[in-house]
Amino acid sequence: MIMEQYTEENTYVVDLGEINSAADIIFNLSSILDNSEARNKKICLKLGNADLNQAQILSIKSLINGINSILSSIDTKSAETEKVALSLGIIVSNVSPENITEVNPEVPYKTAEEFKNETQAEIQEEIKETEAQEYNENQEIIKEGTENPEEIKEEEIQIPTTEEQVNIEDKNQLQDELEVIFGPDPAKTSIFNMEVPKNMYEEKEGLTDIIVPEQEYTKEDIELESFPTKYIKQTIRSGQVINYEGNIVIIGDCHPGCEISAFGDITVWGVLSGIAHAGSGGNQKARVRALKMNAIQLRIANCYSRRPDSLNTVYVEKTNSFTPEEARIINGEIVVFKIND
Amino acid sequence: MAGRVIVITSGKGGVGKTTTSANIGTALAKNGHSVVLIDTDIGLRNLDLLLGLENRIVYTLVDVVEERCKLKQALVKDKKNPNLCLLAAAQTRDKSSVSAEQLKKITDKLKKDYDFILVDCPAGIEQGFQTAIAGASEAIVVTTPEMSAVRDADRIIGLLEAAEGIDSYKLLINRVRPNMIKSNDMMSVEDVENILSCQKIGVIPEDTGIITSTNRGEPIVNNEKSLAGKAYINVARRINGEEVPFLDIDEPKDIVGKLKKFLSGLGKHGKEQ
Q: How far apart are CA A105 and CA A95, in angstroms?
């Protein structure tokens, strides 16, 4: 069987990475979900190159909801699936470790001074114009966007629905469409032909209107702003790992040998000397901030950079005045800015 | 030709296992051999620091074992020497993450492509030690001329003799201070050899340059003036099967002593002729 399951913090991982046909994915998934271990869990679904459309992902979601579990995240290599899943409010992580090494590891991160002369003007414009404008434009979208996931959740709770809730007409219509998607194999379609409730199905059309697919940044900005934040008031020492599906704020130093990874931003009120991975869920807009940036490695989304060898010192001098620094992705590379104002 | 897997171990901590691994590895690579250094001190890794490769590590031994990456991806190339690779240990895990069989699999794989695989063993005789020696066929036991280190080395040699797969083991005596030996404050190299009844492969003099080299992330064999560096280069040549005379580490500081040494050296030379 092509699956791999381990339970960690109530998460159940289903690996269907080697299956490329949508129908087979759903067929395999349904047989895996029969296992009682999968009940009442957060399901993390690993997919390979398969392109899934909205209806297919919704079917998967309802299958999972049917056993009182939640589809917590999807791991996919397909851009199409990623787009659709994001538009449905599902967390997508496509930053497999292999993606990180594709970036040349020999590139040390640039300091702002190196970068300023070339691109400062452009960046300023970018920040001022695009962010300001588009932020305003997206205010309404954000409001709607934050409401909708809750709506979905409410409906998720109603599931599993009985057949009675689905009108016969809708059911027929649904089955027709499913046949178009997966082919007329009755054995396979029967698994989900009634698991998709009527209201869920309508929802899909509403959701697509909210996210504007042509502006990629909006989706990431919305994601960033909706993340919860974790506060940690302690020194993070060598060997300690902090993972959080949101933003992390650390009041204290991060010593070499520690690893911090967050789906959103990482802010360190102290010296950052360990490894920091912001946007570990794939969010390219995530940033790393620190009073003193001395990180061995900085990773943002699928970008990777290491500390320049010239900065390999025994320890960092702690002075009374720090200049806060911020790292972000610009044109596909990580740049560290000093925040002077 | 299959490569040789050598484990560098000691039992006691702080005697210079990691320094020895880094320097012998670098010296072998400098002589044109392809070398992989494996750090098995999971949770307390230091080998990367000594080589100055700390900021280049993306994948570790644990990632390879848990199949999150390929073996080749986890090998970090040295800055200066393309013949030298490092397979780093994970800092955020513990010794139980890698089993003896898993490490043996990795060393067996590496054997095919590299001349030397040096395994840096953690201190102690527990699971970490058992894991580190699993894939090795040779061992270098590092000790210092102190009673505690010698006792621990004796224990380790006993375990190595009992272990399957270890065909030969040699002794490396580290941090030797000729002046203290002269004044009878320290065990001599011969004493240590006699106590352990084990053949030595090298004698490394105490050198303050080691501290600087560790802090800079630059192995001391790259410093041609250092006596310890020379001694490590000789060890590397002996590992490779060459017969190299042991370095005269006796280094008097005052001019009279230097002159005496020079004259006695002349005398010896004359006698031999």
A: 16
